[in-house]
Amino acid sequence: MSEYNANFGLSDDELLELPTVFAADLFKDKVVLVSGGGSGLGKAAAVLFARLGATLVLCGRNESRLDAAQTLIAGLDGEVMTQAMTIRDADAVTATMDAVWDRFGRLDVLINNAGGQFPQAAIDFSVKGWNAVIDTNLNGTWYMMQAAARKWRDAQENEQPSGNIINMVADIWRGMPGIAHTCAARAGVVYLSRSVAVEWAPYGIRVNCVAPGCVETEAFGLYPPEGSATFPESNPQLHAGDVQDIAEACVYLAAPSGKFVTGEVITVDGGQQLWGDPWPTGRPDYFKL
After folding, report:
1. Distance (Å, rounded) from C-alpha 222 to C-alpha 91?
2. Pick the residue with more confidence: 149 or 275?
3. CA-based nearest residue to 236, from 178, 267, 277, 280
């Protein structure tokens, strides 16, 4: 079995120095909002967009993580705004969007990264646990999408350009035993995105998803060792991905490179959907060879 990174991801210094194929001023004068931007995939995406010249808005529940990410990104000489809030609260989402437009007068890209789940056999889910995951990953994502779309629709009256939504989902195509609740929610986000990509096209809004496979972040540490140990076996490349793989997929969709892509899911998983066997709670004995 291949080894996974026991440090669960890349350091801040590595995020700042990773090579990228994109031009340094690609997002100059653009405003990018990343939910869950204080850690993991969201933080990596925020850092990359900042390196490419964007003004960043970071929101999330953990204020100390947001502050740390703000300090990191501010070192790149970019402007950063943070907003402590939960995407489960539709009123807080609306207030966040209002604050972004009040400060910057625009929003160009929304990356819906905030979400969460916990590993557990589905038969043991409580009603509270199920609802918490669905409320965050599906409802919260929707509140963010709708609030941004309304702002873009209304801004068209002033001939301002519309925007771009990128929803972080998951590699759900074969299901994921051990986190069935998030699979249900993320599948909902995929088909929601495909539906509104058509409805909102007249407003100039593109809507896409990025579906990461097993990627090394600090979230690896939330899974039992027997679960995370299966992640390198989840794809035929026999190693987990890194956060830059996902961040660059987001940039591709947000940049002019993705101008003719909407209603699509970009899967970044090393081939996991073709051949993989991840078990977040650990592989049951009856599935062991």
Report:
1. 30
2. 149
3. 277
Residue 5 lies in a domain: no
Geometric angle at alpha carbon 245, from 57 and 283, rounded to 5°? 110
In a domain, 9, yes or no: no
Question: Is residue 160 very low, low, confident or very high in pLDDT (cuts 50, 70, 90)?
Answer: low
Residue 10 covered by a domain: no
The CATH code of the domain that includes 47 is 3.40.50.720
pLDDT over threshold 80, residue 37: yes
Q: pLDDT at residue 162 above 80?
A: yes
* Cβ-based neighbours of 72, under 8 Å, separated by 6 or more: 12, 15, 16, 43, 47
Give bridge partners of residue 212 from the DSSP assignment: 268
pLDDT: is 170 or 97 the higher one? 97
Report, as an integer, the average pLDDT of 119-142: 94
Q: Compare 228 and 125 and report the one with higher pLDDT.
A: 125
Question: Rounded to 5 degrees, what angle do the CA atoms 245, 266, 24 make?
Answer: 45
> Range of 32's domain?
22-287
Residue 8 lies inside a defined structural domain of this protein: no
Q: Count of domains in the chain?
A: 1
| 215 pLDDT higher than 90 | no
